């Protein structure tokens, strides 16, 4: 998530139930799924979205200390789903977001596309929810055991409801405050308050884990998605020379007749790699996370910035596949220090050094780098879902 949440939608993720039909000794949101917990996959989708700011997770009162994330708010749920949603909404009142997405914690396979579609559609329609048109024949039945068909039901205009369901924040908050009793979902609460709810596109992968068989299907979906979720980010940065007796490049101090100017330690190499990682995550640049107007970053080691970007990448479920960094300068000579730089970048990002490339080129004495006025750098980073 971004540090600046203005104009971003908030999210309430409801995971306060016990989920007994899923089997197991613990509630389904805490059960393992493709190497992580169910709730971790659900959270990863919202934390990775550039459209989502504040996130509230609603948990059972006895489980509020189990989540383990510093960038989300945890609140205790109530004795029904609608009571739990209201608790999550009330936790956002001081933030006063314009829009909120409400999602079932057990829908761990929610595609990015649905989150994006809902945040865009709600700006136009005020209340939207994803749904899938029913394509199978429908029966009603009677009896017990092997039940008997007693009627065929017309499937025209019928949809399977999904989440996240998106609303103008104060409209759905007031609807929940006025609603009495239990509700199947937030569309029911909204409609009871007189709100018109539009149906947006759902997705077959957006299943709600309910039974043991659903875990098998969800794991297959997530593993297939991991094979195709590859992100590439580019970075570019420039620093001019100024007074000094050394430069810091890719974490390595190199003696030189001048230094580089910048608000931090002016490590143009680490800045560029950091921006490449943020770019792959759709998280802007260093200035969004570490504003140069903030005096606490004056003279700061750029290692702080790169470590933050690498940690953010890992928290979103990605590993760094490779880093390719090119320093552009006439001097100092980079070759004698390239291996040390490679090792330092690998250490900071917790990446195998064999996946890090640091190299240099000149601009053939053209431009500001050719005139020896400063150093430029470009970098490319590839992230792969893990």
UniProtKB/TrEMBL annotation:
Superkingdom of origin organism: Bacteria
Keywords on record: Isoprene biosynthesis, Lyase, Metal-binding, Multifunctional enzyme, Nucleotidyltransferase, Transferase
GO BP: isopentenyl diphosphate biosynthetic process, methylerythritol 4-phosphate pathway; terpenoid biosynthetic process
Amino acids binding 4-CDP-2-C-methyl-D-erythritol 2-phosphate: 237-239, 263-264, 285-287, 361-364, 368, 371
SUPFAM superfamilies recorded: IpsF-like, Nucleotide-diphospho-sugar transferases
Region annotation 2-C-methyl-D-erythritol 4-phosphate cytidylyltransferase: where it falls in the sequence: 1-230
Cofactor list: a divalent metal cation
Residues involved in a divalent metal cation binding: 237, 239, 271
Domain 2-C-methyl-D-erythritol 2,4-cyclodiphosphate synthase stretches: 230-383
GO molecular function: 2-C-methyl-D-erythritol 2,4-cyclodiphosphate synthase activity; 2-C-methyl-D-erythritol 4-phosphate cytidylyltransferase activity; metal ion binding
Site (Positions MEP for the nucleophilic attack): 155, 208
Catalytic activity: 4-CDP-2-C-methyl-D-erythritol 2-phosphate = 2-C-methyl-D-erythritol 2,4-cyclic diphosphate + CMP; 2-C-methyl-D-erythritol 4-phosphate + CTP + H(+) = 4-CDP-2-C-methyl-D-erythritol + diphosphate
Family the UniProt entry places it in: Belongs to the IspF family.
NCBIfam families, A to Z: ispD (TIGR00453), ispF (TIGR00151), PRK09382.1 (NF006899)
Record function comment: Bifunctional enzyme that catalyzes the formation of 4-diphosphocytidyl-2-C-methyl-D-erythritol from CTP and 2-C-methyl-D-erythritol 4-phosphate (MEP) (IspD), and catalyzes the conversion of 4-diphosphocytidyl-2-C-methyl-D-erythritol 2-phosphate (CDP-ME2P) to 2-C-methyl-D-erythritol 2,4-cyclodiphosphate (ME-CPP) with a corresponding release of cytidine 5-monophosphate (CMP) (IspF).
Protein name: Bifunctional enzyme IspD/IspF
Organism the protein comes from: Boseongicola aestuarii
Lineage summary: Bacteria, Pseudomonadati, Pseudomonadota, Alphaproteobacteria, Rhodobacterales
């Amino acid at each position: 998530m971004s540090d600046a949440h203005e104009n971003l939608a908030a999210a309430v993720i409801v995971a306060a139930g016990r989920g007994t039909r899923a089997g197991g000794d613990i509630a389904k949101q805490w059960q393992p799924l493709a190497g992580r917990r169910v709730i971790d996959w659900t959270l990863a989708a919202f934390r990775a979205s550039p459209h989502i700011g504040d996130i509230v997770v609603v948990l059972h009162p006895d489980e509020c200390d189990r989540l383990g994330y510093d960038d989300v708010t945890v609140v205790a749920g109530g004795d029904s789903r609608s009571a739990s949603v209201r608790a999550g909404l009330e936790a956002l009142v001081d933030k006063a977001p314009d829009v909120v997405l409400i999602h079932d914690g057990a829908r761990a396979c929610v595609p990015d596309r649905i989150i994006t579609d809902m945040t865009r559609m709600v700006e136009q329609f005020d209340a939207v929810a994803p749904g899938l048109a029913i394509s199978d024949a429908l029966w009603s039945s009677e009896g017990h055991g092997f039940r008997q068909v007693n009627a065929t039901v017309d499937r025209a205009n019928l949809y399977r409801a999904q989440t996240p369901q998106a609303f103008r924040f104060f409209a759905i908050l007031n609807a929940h405050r006025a609603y009495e009793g239990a509700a199947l979902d937030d569309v029911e609460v909204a409609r009871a308050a007189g709100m018109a709810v539009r149906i947006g596109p759902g997705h077959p992968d957006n299943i709600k884990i309910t039974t043991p068989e659903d875990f098998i299907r969800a794991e297959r979906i997530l593993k297939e998605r991991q094979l195709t979720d590859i992100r590439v980010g580019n970075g570019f940065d420039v620093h001019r020379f100024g007074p000094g007796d050394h430069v810091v490049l890719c974490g390595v101090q190199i003696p030189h007749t001048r230094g580089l100017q910048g608000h931090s330690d002016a490590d143009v190499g680490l800045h560029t790699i950091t921006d490449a990682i943020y770019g792959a995550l759709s998280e802007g640049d260093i200035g969004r996370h570490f504003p140069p107007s903030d005096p606490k970053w004056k003279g700061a080691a750029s290692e702080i910035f790169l470590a933050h970007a690498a940690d953010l990448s890992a928290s979103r479920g990605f590993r760094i596949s490779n880093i390719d960094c090119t320093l552009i300068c006439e001097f100092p000579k980079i070759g004698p220090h390239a291996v040390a730089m490679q090792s330092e970048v690998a250490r900071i990002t917790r990446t195998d050094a064999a996946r890090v490339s640091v190299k240099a080129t000149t601009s053939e004495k053209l431009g500001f780098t050719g005139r020896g006025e400063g150093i430029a750098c470009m970098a490319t980073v590839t992230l792969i879902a893990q």
